[in-house]
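User: Assemble these into one structure.

Assistant: Restating your components, then the assembled model:
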Amino acid sequence: MTTQEAFYNYIVRLGDDSLILGQRISEWCGHGPILEEDIALTNIALDLIGQTNNLYELAVSIENKGKNIDQLAFLRLEKEYSNLLLVEQPNVDFGYTIVRQFFFDVYRKLVFESLCNSTDERLAGIAEKSLKETKYHLKHSSEWVIRLGDGTEESHRRVQEAVNTLWKFTDELFYQDEVDQNVIELGLGVDNSIFKATWNTHVEQVLTEATLTIPTNSWQHTGGRKGIHTEHFGYLLSEMQYMQRAYPNMEW
Amino acid sequence: MVTEKDIWEQLEQISDPEIPVLSIVDLGIVRTVSISDDSCIVTITPTYSGCPAMNVIQEDIIKLLSPTVNTKVEMTLSPAWTTDWMSENGRNKLREYGIAPPEHEVDKSVLFAKPTVVPCPKCKSSHTKMISQFGSTACKAHYQCLDCLEPFDYFKCLK
């Protein structure tokens, strides 16, 4: 694997994470539990799609094969997407959506903080911009985890169920392979193993405040970075890709 | 021969499509204007990564300047935009329009600490509360005044 290929893959992974989570959250549009949260979730989705836009622009310029970003977003097959399994999990209810967002936000904030020092100026610029947005998302998701966990009996039960179900996708946040090794060596990307402990401490702190417990079941599910997805992913893609597939090269 | 100062002055006429009371210069999203020979490059930066107004702003700049000078618009992300770049003039215009301008500190109220006090743009009371961290556009939050009861937008502080 050349450095160029590794860097390209690395950027596409970052972009896939935000694209797929952005798509998932946007499913809430018009269905939020209250108007304010409907607006909040769609705002967060917009930030994530905007970040995807910037990351894919960088990816296609690294690859330099004249692709446009719509091809990356809408015309790849399931196995060509390398997002984390966490972000493709269904919304289920507001509690699941918030817990998924919270796990991701804590992780993503740490990633962007480190990427601000990337040896690639363009990536550092995207990280600096996205970090500001991510901090705000984290504030929102943390508050809701606490409000729901330490809320009513039912909200506590539901959000604890979400933590139990989604916990098995959290080890994958720290997955590394040759793509990571390549970009870490050159200072282009981050060594995510460095902040695993910080992620754990942060998550534990908020969950404790929310009177929630971390499951002890240690079985972990991975595969997203290699294109091996959970069953929910195909349905998401068929909806997301519909317009480009039905009307090739369409533009808004 | 058109000068950079002329271009800056002309750009004052272009408003943010989502907050028409502010020009793109007041907002601080025009970063640089550079003129060489007979062409001009205007560099702009988005307020938020997914700001849907950027394309319209780009088109507006080209439409406005093209009759005078050959114009190109470039986008930059770094350094990242902050609300500190909004001009004092811009802050006053926002307030008059009914949107509370960004306070100079980021709201650090994570986990229910004390949130930033945002005075009501209508009656100036500091007795207000946040309704939602997110508002009608990516750059705003939603507040309500507890004295005059008026709901209002707050242009969130971003640093």
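Residues 164 and 243 of chain A are 35 Å apart (CA to CA).
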